[in-house]
Write a structure and sequence with these properties.
This protein is an alpha/beta fold. The chain has 16 helices and 21 strands. Strands 1, 2, 3, 4, 5, 6 and 16 form a 7-stranded mixed beta sheet that branches. Strand 5 and strand 6 form a beta hairpin. Helix 4 packs across helix 8.
């Protein structure tokens, strides 16, 4: 055997499972597969172990939002308001944010991976045909892994930017720069009013920036219309400019750090010191080697209920998390990961050979039917399941019940409390298929709605789930009364 052949053989290993992507989704897939009895589970990551959520998304963004939300809440309660009249300590907010990212150091996450009995391989992974993954390290060396039982794509997503004239050549923020910034720009332009855009507009306005939020259609357009209206109203009340129904056509900047000029389709020119482009995300599959297994590079991975990727023979290629294009949320990625890791181990044991039935442990049913989400603006927006329009589009005979959130609990929570609530009822089955709550501190209402939707609890039985008084959850009683119970 030649030296080159010997080296190639040494750099090729057979293992049980290869998980591509060491974010929260990949970590959970690998852990569940290993706990299910698969000994050789390799986790491959080319950036920080822990992924987007830990370092550039969920954790740092909420750390930026929480101090100003607590201050605003105190100012709405006479007796506490006087104590909250001082200035916000912006430096302390940024320092606390950085603490949640461990200063962008993943040492503790690496320790967890190793302590869980998993192997971590640093490098960029690409498929190289069925069951084969080539990992290229930062020094250019490669290792080829061959998976006995499965390869799992958990590579997440990347920002998707619109085709705006000049954008490619203009330094600008994505969500990563927005959540890791070391200072607050005097003027911030935010392009895109989805979850990231709305949250960062809220955070930076309260941290002292002049903020202009530009929505192509409406603020939080994926939610019930009233939710976005209330968030837009709140931003305007705080001094932000909110532009709806406009699209950017061009952007230019004076040097790398000069002022940014954003031209809209109505001819207006907006000026800022930084530009955050938050117009959505796309699966990170452009360089995953999908073409070597018969798929198209850059596509979202279509999966069955167990996470198996459609269009690939042999029942070995799985996907979980943002890469599927379904419910790009950390908690939903972890939910899917648990199912994928468990079913991989079960199939290795000769069990769970068929596609799992809905609502069994190996199925990812909630990805399509009961996705809960919280938007940490002020007011908060929470939702689960379908909006009324989505339900109608799905052919469901729908009745929507909605009302202002005005109960004893909300009045105690804050003077001048502003909120709104909605239930989407499937009239044929008399169960909830969706719910939305908007208001200060409504995030804690969401899980009860999620249980009702997932459990398909009949409204007549839900009537007997008595909300405690005086809490904001009393809105459940008012909603069911409005329905007619």
């Amino acid at each position: 055997m030649s030296e080159s052949t010997q080296q190639a053989a040494a750099d090729e290993r057979e293992v049980d499972v290869v998980v591509i992507g060491g974010g929260s989704t990949g970590e959970n897939v690998a852990d569940r597969a290993h706990r299910g009895g698969l000994e050789q589970v390799v986790l491959v990551e080319d950036e920080l172990v822990g992924g987007e959520c830990s370092y550039w998304a969920c954790m740092p963004s909420k750390a930026l939002l929480r101090p100003t939300a607590a201050l605003a809440a105190a100012r709405r309660v006479p007796g506490a308001a006087a104590a909250a009249d001082g200035e916000l300590d912006v430096a302390a907010v940024l320092t606390r944010r950085t603490s949640f990212t461990s200063d962008w150091d993943d040492s503790s996450q690496v320790q967890w991976v190793e302590g869980a009995g998993l192997e971590l391989l640093r490098g960029r992974a690409r498929l190289d045909g069925p069951r084969r993954v080539v990992v290229t390290a930062s020094d250019g060396t490669t290792t080829t892994l061959v998976a006995r039982h499965g390869v799992v794509a958990a590579v997440g997503s990347t920002p998707s930017e619109p085709p705006i004239d000049g954008l490619d050549g203009v330094p600008h923020w994505t969500s990563r720069e927005a959540t890791s910034a070391t200072s607050v720009p005097p003027r911030l332009l935010v392009l895109g009013a989805g979850v990231v855009g709305s949250e960062m507009a809220t955070a930076y306005r309260r941290l002292g920036a002049e903020v202009t939020l530009v929505a192509g259609s409406a603020v939080l357009s994926a939610f019930e219309p009233r939710a976005g209206e209330l968030v837009a109203d709140a931003l305007r009340a705080e001094g932000a400019e909110v532009v709806t129904g406009s699209r950017a056509t061009a952007v230019e900047r004076d040097g790398d750090d000069g002022e940014v000029r954003l031209t809209l389709d109505d001819g207006r020119v907006l000026v800022g010191d930084e530009l955050l482009v938050a117009t959505g995300r796309k699966p990170r599959t452009g360089d995953l080697g999908l073409e070597t297994v018969g798929l198209e590079a850059g596509q979202a991975l279509d999966i069955d209920a167990s996470g198996l990727v459609a269009g690939v023979d042999g029942r070995w290629f799985y996907a979980a998390g943002d890469v599927t294009g379904l419910a790009p949320l950390t908690h939903m990625g972890k939910y899917a990961a648990r199912a994928v890791g468990d079913v991989l181990a079960a199939r290795a044991r000769g069990e769970a050979t068929d596609e799992p039935a809905p609502w069994t442990p190996y199925a990812t049913t909630a990805l399509r039917q009961a996705v809960p989400q919280v938007v940490f603006t002020d007011p908060e927006v929470t939702s689960v399941g379908m909006t009324a329009q989505q339900a109608r589009d799905a052919g469901i005979d729908v009745r929507a019940v909605e009302l202002d959130l005005s109960v004893a609990g909300s009045a105690l929570q804050a003077d001048g409390y502003t909120g709104w609530a909605s239930l989407v009822v499937d009239e044929d089955r008399h169960v909830l298929v969706g719910a939305t709550f908007v208001g200060q501190d409504v995030a804690e209402l969401l899980h009860s709605a999620t249980v009702a939707v997932v459990g398909e609890v009949p409204l007549e039985r839900l009537w007997h789930a008595v909300p405690s008084y005086p809490t904001i959850s009393e809105v459940w009683l008012r909603l069911l009364e409005s329905y007619g119970l």
